[in-house]
Amino acid sequence: MRLITTLWAFLAICFTTGNALTIIDSTIATSCIYYEKQFKWGCSKSGLSYNCYCKNINWLQTITNCVYNATSSTHLRKHAFEHIIKRCKSSGKVSLTMEQLYKYQENGTHYLVDYTPLAKKYIVNGTLKVNETDFDWYHKKFKEYTVFVERSQWFGWGLVLYWVFIISIASIFNINKRLLGFKFLRRYKNMINKTLLIPSMFKNYHDRPFILWKIFPFDFPTRDSALVITGFTILTIVSVCVGYNVTLPHPNFTTRLYANIKLIGFRTDLMAISLFPVIYFFGIRNNPFTYISGISYSKFNLYHKCCAYACTILAFMHTVVYTIWAVKSDTYSARAKRPYWRWGIVATTLLFLLVFHSNKMIRNYMYETFLLCHKIMSVMFIVAMYYHMKSYGWMGWVWSMIAIYSFDRFMRLVRIILHGGIVTATLKDCGDGIIKMTVKKPRYLRYKAGSYAFVYFLSSKYAFFYNFQSHPFTVLTDPTKDPNNPSTLMFYFKAHKGITRNILSRILSSGEESIKCRILLEGPYGAQLPQLVKPQSNMVAIAAGLGSSAVYPHIYDVLKNIDVNENEKSEYQHKFIWIIREINYLNWFHKELEWLKSKNCQVKIIVTGNNSRLLNIDTESSSKSVSEHSSNLTENLNVEKLGYRPNLQELVIKEISKSESISKDITFVGCGPAAFNDELRSSVAKSIPKESSINIEFQSESFVW
Asked: Which GO terms describe its biological process (predicted)?
């Protein structure tokens, strides 16, 4: 099913953008138009001149005969006539038909007059014959222009193909890792992980932003992502700067300044619109390339922003140079009245607003507003680009955006319908602002470890816009049930603000242990290719706080089909390390911990809170019996009451040493608050020895927008 979805989406992109490459200006029509501009037709030189040209029978008869004399190809003649029709419609507000142009051409042959220099001084009355020597020069110059246009299109396609290359490389490695199991590059794997794949580009800032001068936030990717983005940036800059082969003198440009302005505007325009499908594809939830390539949603979201920044800068350059050109040529007032110009301003403005309000600080402080504005402006941008480009071609890029956006929305709806539409969930307060949600597993939902779902909370008791918001939560299953056929799904999430804070208040004010709520379940997402190659490494899951719900499914997936006696004899030593502030956290996660213990998985709990708060259980969500149960849990589990945050690098080094002693590869899976994730990432990268007999991997389960 997913492969069919991928193929459908890929073909949609190929067909819609592929058509855009064939819709370019007719060299013959353009040559004839500019050739005839040297004569007097009784029309002004302003931006409204086409309104006059396209109503002048002498001009129409002359231009159609010019096309006929320029080529004997029926196809090229028809294409040239189509161009004239579009030019008259868009620039002159005059509607013509193909039949009319053929009649003008035929009628013009009865009124042919020879070319004379007087035609440049006095208004032409008749159908001018073409001076072939003069026309050949115009034709040659516009062939240069056509080559430039085609080159600019291919530079735009080059940006698309760059991402095709990146996704292809990632897919090769992902398919090998999960389906084939060839161990190439094993010798260099640790070095690659240590220097490229794991560490952040800047110090240990990745999930959390680096705040410059306590004002300006900067997000830093991992080094491999930084390398990909750097390559894309260099390719974009080079593509903008090279390949300007149009020489002067030229009928379309009076000076080199005008030529540079027009050509740069054309180049940046074609490159910007070529990024439309990439931006929209990388930003959707139903991205089939996530499944094939193994690239995470968070990383695709990073590339989505990178391409959006590039597109915005290119669009800004396009806007600036064309504005300068219009002002210098004294046609700005006339052009500003045309719909394509106005819609271009709207589209560029929307691009800037989309990029600006996507800043992490704005998202964090006013997420609901950001979400609503982003959705509305994304649709408005498509509409603006449609009206900006419909008269000039290259509509394939616009249709690609529409196809991708519609595909994503359709698939979201399909997922919701297949999973029961409106379903009832049970919500329970676990203390410390953590809420547990339980849902009966929909019949057609296929659960995979590490997957997540978007949940819509429906209620008339909330503000109306909350019903349209969706929140991503990791999906878990009840460990006491059949692991291969779970009957219920569980979600743990923390109440922050907005709808989740309202839900917590509703639970606490109900006076009940739990409440019911209607929800829409969209997902699950995050599924990978089948893991046919059996992992041959120790798994060490390290979580902080609520991060346990994200790393637990991965170690659960490794242990679920292992018999206890078999696991006792296993050569692998899997471990679950949970760092929590208070012992009370054990109340809501004890079933999962006990199940891990029953599978002979090493479980270690590190409590960082001070001694006076270790048993300070929230009275609103617990009782004396629960407190006693917590005490029993501390006896059954390996609980270390540290009282402060542990040194993660020491923990990592210790686990690496253990794996080296039994010559087994090791994979660290981590999740927690942003600062914890960054510290763990940095600790693993620093702890990988230069020489080691085992491979050391790191997998972060943080969901970064």
From this structure: copper ion import; intracellular iron ion homeostasis; iron ion transport
